[in-house]
Amino acid sequence: MQLDAAVENDMNTGSIPSADRPEPVRILAALDALDATSADSNERIISDAAQLAKRVDGELHVVSAYPTFAYARSHQVERYLPALRVKARDRRRCAIRQLLRGLHVEATAIHVEEGALSNAIDAVASRLNAVVVIGTSTAASPIAISSTAPAAAATLKHPALPTEFAA
Fold it and tell me: How many C-beta neighbours within 10 Å does residue 41 have?
């Protein structure tokens, strides 16, 4: 009987074949990376999300967004849109990396999307199948913790989550 090369390699290295590996718990920290008035809440969001990811041996992902350039639809401006998008993403990624470095936190990935932050959260959380989102809601209540899946109760009952996050 011949084993598939990938399975044989997994057996030789002692790792679990990818089909049998459980999906990692993904924690999504959502923040406005360039808003100076959100600096304190951004630090708290990253710290809380990093602590949770560490407690559940999960992945920390950070998401931010930049305003859409859809309104700039003229021939004079349209040719600059790709460069403007790259610059907007790079500025936010740089700000997030600086925040992470300052807090001595490592993230699995930084996601920067065009459009409203709420839409970016939904899109990234859906792509990642994230279990928990920790992020800004309003200036009055800077931290919001919520599940991201349509079945909210099932999501927050994830077995790896500490009991204080259970639904």
Answer: 19
DSSP character at residue 19: T
Strands 144-147, 109-114: pairing is unpaired
Domains by residue range for the chain, with CATH: 22-165 (3.40.50.620)
- Cβ burial 19-32 (10 Å sphere, 16+ → b, else e): eeeeebbbbbbbbb
CB-based contacts of 109, cutoff 8 Å, min separation 6:
59, 61, 62
Q: What are phi and psi of 119, to 5 degrees?
A: -70, -40
CA distance 64 to 135: 10
Q: For residue range 128-146, what is the model confidence (pLDDT) as tens digits?
A: 988 888 886 543 344 445 5
Identify the segments of the chain with pLDDT beneath 70.
1-21, 70-76, 136-167
**Which residue in 124, 132, 126, 122 sits closest to 167, CA to CA?**
132
